Amino acid sequence: xxxxxxxxxxxxxxxxxxxxxxxxxxxxxxxxxxxxxxxxxxxxxxxxxxxxxxxxxxxxxxxxxxxxxxxxxxxxxxxxxxxxxxxxxxxxxxxxxxxxxxxxxxxxxxxxxxxxxxxxxxxxxxxxxxxxxxxxxxxxxxxxxxxxxxxxxxxxxxxxxxxxxxxxxxxxxxxxxxxxxxxxxxxxxxxxxxxxxxxxxxxxxxxxxxxxxxxxxxxxxxxxxxxxxxxxxxxxxxxxxxxxxxxxxxxxxxxxxxxxxxxxxxxxxxxxxxxxxxxxxxxxxxxxxxxxxxxxxxxxxxxxxxxxxxxxxxxxxxxxxxxxxxxxxxxxx
Length: 333
Known about the structure:
With 333 residues, the chain is of the alpha/beta class. It folds into 2 domains: 3-171 and 223-250, NAD(P)-binding Rossmann-like Domain (Rossmann fold, 3-Layer(aba) Sandwich); 190-220 and 253-326, UDP-galactose 4-epimerase, domain 1 (Alpha-Beta Complex). The protein is built from 10 helices and 13 strands. It has a 7-stranded parallel beta sheet with strand order 3-2-1-4-5-6-10, with helices on both faces. Strands 7, 9, 11 and 13 form a 4-stranded mixed beta sheet that branches. The longest helix has 21 residues, at 86-106. The protein is globular.
């Protein structure tokens, strides 16, 4: 087995995948332009500071490190931001990914694990959502991920690039040992925003409290980032064992509302997040949660973290140890 190139490997999910790959005994090289990632998240790993559209840098990396497989995380990934800047999302997520795929073709790479999203489904007709659910995205983020998903079978037919697409639900938490975690600027994810609001930071804005859900707030499937990373390792092993291209949901199958998250953060931190209700965000479905039967049955994936409080606790552990993110570290109390 050759080395694994992890694009966007200094980012939140990518850095956890790098750690999981190394634990599995794989040689890893990270390519990241550091526009969103943090070099400290992948200390001790061969690192190339470049974007995925930099074809010479990608080709040189593939050659120098004898890369045989790629995990592709480098993308923009905020629903609200995609609605405000669809052009940027199509460039970052589609145009630049096609440039990457061209370099992989030229470098004779044959295995790809692609970071996709539950946003490809749009407003679900039924839940839990299975992989054969119609794909009708309601925001540019989902549309751009689906555009790449639709391109991949053509790349397989023409160039032999076999890809597993992992459709994430809501990534959450931090590595249980507290060494790597979530550090976005600005932070858009629910759990760290709620922790901030419980610690005297900006109040937590609940985007819509009038959805057709039990408490009026959106329901989401929060999957621990280390469980996501493990799914990538299993997907790569499946490709290398000769399994075919396939799409898999990665989620716990357990929906939690925004108010559930706020209650969990209060239990874990001992402080209630200061909150206020704001208008709905454009492009937000009321309910998204996974059927994970396919990935359980075919790849043997099982989430270690299914309890919401356990997920929040890992995020809280990271925040206590790194109150300023990667730029600042504090001793564990």
